[in-house]
């Protein structure tokens, strides 16, 4: 009986340890340019940058992605890809600026907004000053007035 209870406790500990481990993060991959008015040159540069990025040739990928941003400056995906390469090279401040720019240019792109690469840098909307007006959405209570 003692062996059975020891076995059950051991099984319980292993189960708890297995359940508490962090899920693996999805690998970061460059995005294809999807905007309709993108120049073919920007698409080609992005494809070349993606191949270099996947081969872990981040300096080369950075050059291709930088050229793609120049060819398609209003593309959130191009900004995002450039930020990925900068981030991989350890230039986190420049990467931060391009991640935020990508998020601003592609407000509906869930991949960009939910990316683990963007999350450490915060929501750009949260960085703006959002002071609630004294007569904002709160319901007044007795004795409440302008402060």
The CATH architecture of the domain at 40-124 can be given as: Alpha Horseshoe
Q: What share of the residues lie within helices? A: 55-70%
- Name the structural class: mainly alpha
Compute the number of helices: 7
Query: In the CATH scheme, what's the topology name of the domain at 40-124?
Result: Serine Threonine Protein Phosphatase 5, Tetratricopeptide repeat
- Biggest sheet details: none
Residue windows where pLDDT falls under 50 for at least 5 positions: 126-141
Order of helices and strands: HHHHHHH
Would you report the number of β strands?
0
Name of the level-1 CATH class of the domain at 40-124: Mainly Alpha
Strand content: under 5%
CA(first)-CA(last) distance? 70 Å
The coarse silhouette is elongated
Mean pLDDT: 77
**What oligomeric arrangement do these chains adopt?**
single chain
Rg over CA atoms, rounded to whole Å, is 24 Å
Can you put this structure into words, describing what you see?
Mean pLDDT is 77; it is low at 126-141. With 147 residues, the protein is mainly alpha-helical. The protein has seven helices and no strands. Helix 2 packs antiparallel against helix 3 (58-71), helix 3 (58-71) packs antiparallel against helix 4 and helix 4 runs antiparallel to helix 5 (92-105).
Quick rundown:
This protein has helices spanning 2-20, 40-54, 58-71, 76-88, 92-105, 110-113, 124-127. It is an all-alpha fold and 147 residues long. Helix 2 packs antiparallel against helix 3 (58-71).
């Amino acid at each position: 009986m003692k062996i059975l209870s020891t076995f059950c406790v051991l099984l319980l500990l292993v189960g708890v340890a297995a359940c508490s481990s962090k899920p693996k993060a999805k690998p970061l991959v460059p995005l294809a340019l999807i905007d309709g008015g993108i120049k073919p040159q920007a698409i080609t540069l992005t494809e070349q940058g993606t191949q270099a990025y996947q081969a872990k040739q981040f300096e080369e990928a950075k050059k291709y992605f930088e050229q793609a941003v120049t060819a398609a400056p209003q593309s959130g995906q191009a900004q995002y890809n450039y930020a990925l390469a900068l981030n991989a090279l350890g230039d986190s401040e420049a990467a931060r600026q391009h991640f935020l720019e990508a998020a601003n240019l592609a407000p509906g792109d869930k991949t960009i907004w939910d990316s683990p690469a963007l999350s450490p840098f915060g929501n750009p909307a949260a960085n703006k000053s959002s002071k609630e007006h004294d007569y904002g959405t709160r319901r007044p209570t007795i004795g409440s007035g302008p402060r």
